[in-house]
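Title: Prediction job returns without error message
Component: structure pipeline
Severity: low
Priority: P3
Assignee: unassigned

Description:
Job completed but the reporter wants confirmation the result is attached to the right record. Sequence as submitted:
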Amino acid sequence: MINDLFSLDNKVVVITGAAGLLGRQHADAVAQMRGIPVLLDINADAVEHLAADIIAHFGVPASGWAVDITKEAEIEKNSTALLARYGHIDGLVNNAANNPKVEGDGAKNFSRLENFPVEVWQADMAVGLTGSFLCAKYYGSAIARNPQGGSIVNISSDLGLIAPDQRLYRKTGLPDDIQPVKPVTYSVVKSGLIGLTRYLATYWPNVRCNALCPGGVANNQDQAFLKEVCSRIPMGRLARPDEYQGAVLFLLSEASSYMTGAILIIDGGRSCW
């Protein structure tokens, strides 16, 4: 049955950054296919409420855990707790990332490369890259111990493949040296996740690892910005928050059983231009 290919029945899937905009969508998708979403986030209240909502709506034994994925000891402790509770881990979605928006002080814009603080660089790398590595180290190792293995999905971005168009962020009347820009760390993290994906894909024979490169998501952005960004997308719009659910299910399930080390681009065609 074709439906069986997408089934996640009784599969335990760890999702990082689960309280964020897309994290919630990934969790709902897993639960709808009878999987068990394990929700990790630094925000304890948000992730516990989300787990309760999923249990109420889908009847699966979801759980929410406050975990700082930049701290190896917390991940190691959590992986041990999850194995004690569920007995196995079958999937990992490395979704957590900072979205750096560094404010200026009027005379200096700290989002610009010339002024970008090394402390912000280190914090963004710690969440987006080091956190993904640490999660793969512990949850991925648990997946590899399953007889049938499982799947890791790294959430990259179209900006892991193409450079940000800095013209989108320009503000009329500002000198060039204080114009806002998309900070450098976002592109570096998302590109790095593609490298991590390929490494992991060749590491454990029974663990598939693929990267999803989504485009922008509509989330009450400024109308002027939306007009500009949508003019650069062949489909003429940003994604709805739920439009990546099918891709995540495909990558986690047996529907993609012979797919590993691949980059799945879903960006409305933006990276075609």
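Comment from assignee: result matches the submitted record. The mean pLDDT is 96.
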